[in-house]
Queue: 3 jobs
Job 1
Amino acid sequence: MRIKQINVKSLFGIFNHEIHLNMDERITIIHGPNGIGKTYILRMLHSLFYRNYHHFLEYPFKEFKVLFDDESEVIVNRIEGNKKEGPVLKISNKKEGKVVKGNKFQVPYFSRREEFYIRRFIDRQIPSLRRLDDDVWIDERNKQIMTFFDISVRFPDEVAYLSKDLARKGISKESLTLLNDKWLQTIVEKVIVQFIRAQRLIITEGDEYIYHRESKSMTDSVVEFYSKDIKGLINDVMREYNTKSQRLDREFPRKLLEGEVNKSIDSSNILNELKELENRRDKLAEAGLLQEESKSPAIPYSTYSTIDIKKKEDMLSIYIENEKEKLSVYNDIFNKIEIFVSILNSTYQYKNISIEADRGFVLETDSGNELTVKKLSSGEQHELVLLYQLLFKTHTKMNSKNKNTLFLIDEPEISLHIAWQHKFLDDLKEIIDLIGFDVLIATHSPQIIHGKNNLMVELLGPKK
């Protein structure tokens, strides 16, 4: 299921916006002057899909509607109450124009200080949870994405102490459970919505648990964290490679004795297959993905010309099939690293970036001097962080192919040179072609749009 349209009525009591997403190109750009509500629309969408309803209290609006490609709708209505009780939210689900589900409730309001306290409490008291974003956690035991309202239901004992503090504000556990409505949960879990905010370079107080699940210590640079993060991703894949290699190596004698041979590989193409395997290993090694002992094949390709291929056909066929299966575990991360490095090296000037399994990002100037990632300019860091989040930081819920993922990007132009802004959409399209997700961009920059007006939705104020 994909989002095809977003409508908001009476935003700030002034604006009515209707945004039709480009379903074919998968990129939609909302463009307009400051104060028209671009960023807030992204925040509302993100808050709905993680059921952080208190964010809907920040600015006035009457109706926020999300339409899906299966012709269903989720509608959030804000009904103003008296000063003491505050506004009420009504959330409903429509199919074929008829309301099929709905709920109406008073929304607990949390100040920034209280939000910080809640996040810190969960980060410290529930060790199986790791925070991915302001109000999004992942349960490391089952990889389930959770919001605060999910946690309040799934971890009642752990949240009991926190609930006492919340009760002083008149917020009961029952009211939190009410907000965790099953029908809405079923809908929002079909789409992954991720928000890449305008502030994306600095880890601020309270965010350290997003970036340091092991040491849980502070750092001040997202690019440094991502350099460590890519090492972790590569090591995870290497462990998978080693596990699969051990299994296939154990099975090799049995396959040979029982004649379990892939008949599509015969003596006429065995040499070509072996050469392709060697080339694949070279590319994986160049991308920093193979350990030293795995970089070279068991028998170098150059020695195969001396072997009677026909007599060894069965053995070599099993070997080729096993090696292909072993190396296949690298396919996903290799494709992502290849695009990541290619885009950055076509963008950066006078320096190159590469990736090594034990060092993360390695930067070298054209004169041969190494740089730390913190030495990159603000624009270079913004480019790196944007690409890394798009390629490596998708929060997986139900689907693994990301076809139902929507990325929200706020002001991608920040600190980018005009020439980099011009190529941004082309780079983004290359990533979309590989991974397959939708993107909604909020921007002031005509350089980002760069003539692609068919992707643009202009947000306008009321006619004067």
Job 2
Amino acid sequence: MSRRPAALLLRQLRRDGAVFEIHDGRLRVEAPSKVLSKDAKRAIREQREPLLRSLATERHVLDLPLDEFEHQERAIEVTVPWLNDTLWFVPRLEHIELLIRDGVGRGRIWTVLELRDLVSVPGMRREDLEQIGRLRAAFDAEIVSIQDDRQDSGPAEHRLPPRREAP
């Protein structure tokens, strides 16, 4: 591993299974032994300070409530265990065009407004979020609206019919 920016080093080692943490101001890395080769360990030592700064920035951004993230200029690329591709969380609509221009499918990009709508659905479970994420990425879809069949809002033609009980 040659000298490379900390963000690239983080991305590569994380993709290979490494987990980075800051504990009492110290950098901790846990990874399978094949991932932490001599070259990888040397690169981590050489990039220690930039890695610490990158991890601190990540923690700061991830700790922001959605309404504060919305005013940031940073897009966040994440991996999730239930999807092979990465997902992007972006603060504003303008970020979508930039990512699409870079070859990222719209179905992998979530805006703050979309996230806010999604988590506002009563009874939304983690499994539901995973399924929506997989479908959206697979179809390169954009969420237009989220309707809750328990809500009596919107035009009648857009409301779901009452749920039938199983016999």
Job 3
Amino acid sequence: MTINSVHLVGISGMDPEARYFESGTQKARFRLALNQGLDEQGKQKPATWVEIHAWGKTAEIITDQVSKGVKVAVSGYLREEVWTDRSTGEQRSKLLVVAQRVECFRATQQGGPPQSNQGLTQAPPAQTPAAQGWAHPAPQVGPAANGWGYGAASTGRQ
């Protein structure tokens, strides 16, 4: 048995790019910067960048809710893309994350309620971790819910 499950929290490094297909399906992609902490001298280490792809309803919501600079939590799975480089003829590949669920964290005003993005981004039930026997706790919303001084505005169904 193998498990292909990814959970990341980072900062969106770009506004999502959307593509629409003749079938009516939408695809969205954006890059997520993951903070690597401080080095021995106390300086910020370079961020790790991860490409995120999404399809269908998840892509629609990402296009509407995610923008550059927003803190985003992504749950999904790894996928390898393989192609042939046109200029060299060499086979190339990269790993990316296919998002099944996305939550945007919005800064709150001092003492005020978190801003809500009022969307939901979750794969069809047969593809969700909960449908595979994995349980997810209900999200905590509000400034005390996490250590960043942000309130979480959930975009996923529970």
